[in-house]
Specification:
- With 241 residues, the protein is of the alpha+beta class.
- It has four helices and 15 strands.
- It folds into two domains: 98 residues, Beta Barrel (OB fold (Dihydrolipoamide Acetyltransferase, E2P)), CATH 2.40.50; 91 residues, Nucleic acid-binding proteins (OB fold (Dihydrolipoamide Acetyltransferase, E2P), Beta Barrel), CATH 2.40.50.
- Helix content is 17%, strand content 43%.
- The strands form three sheets. The chain has a five-stranded mixed β-barrel. A five-stranded mixed barrel has the order 10-11-12-14-13.
- It is elongated.
């Protein structure tokens, strides 16, 4: 059936619909599609601002940022994950909230001391800045804990953040003692030191008092604020030249 000269077309139920109304609907649809396209390309054009964890402030709320650091005190839930992201060079940190359930493969390598890169919007959580990650592409594990070297001075000034984090430290060996296959010694770096214990150590990599070594282990602090490191096996030790 063809439209009449009065610009009416039949509907399936036999009623007529003015062509003008049909054209308006078509125009509205085109405008809506154009609007969606503009929003899509605008969103795609937004680039995150690269910032250090400690530089992110409440005044940055609403800003899309990308930041990198080592993971501290992660809480991995079934629907979300929270953690501190710590700058190993300064000890400054920012809270990160991952607003979805991470894949098991990511959870397996997400542990204290691992280095991560996160991207998300800065939000206000209890009057503190927090980076909210809403997509898997915004959360990436870059390196395991043993790749992250932290100075004893930075740890001493940020005990709460580094407590129970696995990191790498270096220093000069003093007061080396062996007992039942375990090694006990202090590792000094200038005015700072850590009391270290390597469990199950064998002599594949021998070292002595006065040597400079790199040690990978978990840092913890006693009630007096003294740093301790617990490590396991000869692979945790690298003797430096």
């Amino acid at each position: 059936m063809t439209c009449s000269a009065t610009l009416f077309c039949p509907e399936p139920n036999g009623q007529s619909v003015p062509m003008e109304r049909t054209q308006k609907a078509l125009v509205a649809l085109i405008v809506a599609m154009l609007g969606i396209s503009v929003l899509f390309f605008y969103a795609a054009s937004i680039r995150p601002v690269d910032m250090a964890p400690g530089d992110i402030k409440l005044s940055d709320e609403g800003t899309l940022v990308r930041t990198e650091g080592v993971i501290g005190h992660p809480y991995i839930g079934n629907r979300s994950t929270t953690l501190d992201l710590v700058d190993v060079s300064t000890g400054d940190s920012v809270k990160v909230f991952v607003k979805f359930d991470l894949p098991d493969a990511v959870k397996a390598v997400l542990r204290s001391g691992a280095r991560a890169v996160v991207q998300g919007d800065v939000t206000n959580y209890k009057d503190r800045p927090e980076v909210e990650v809403t997509a898997l592409s915004g959360f990436r594990i870059e390196a395991p804990p043993e790749a992250n070297e932290v100075s004893l001075g930075v740890m001493a000034g940020n005990r709460q953040l580094f407590d129970n984090i696995t990191v790498s430290i270096h220093g000069t060996v003093k007061d080396l003692k062996s007992s039942w296959g375990d090694l006990n010694f202090s590792l000094s770096d200038g005015q700072f030191k850590a009391l270290c214990k390597v469990n199950g150590y064998s002599s594949q990599i021998p070292f002595k008092d006065g040597d400079t070594i790199r040690l990978v282990g978990k840092i913890w602090f006693d009630d007096k604020g003294q740093a301790h490191m617990s490590a396991t096996g000869w692979r945790s030790v690298t003797v430096e030249d």
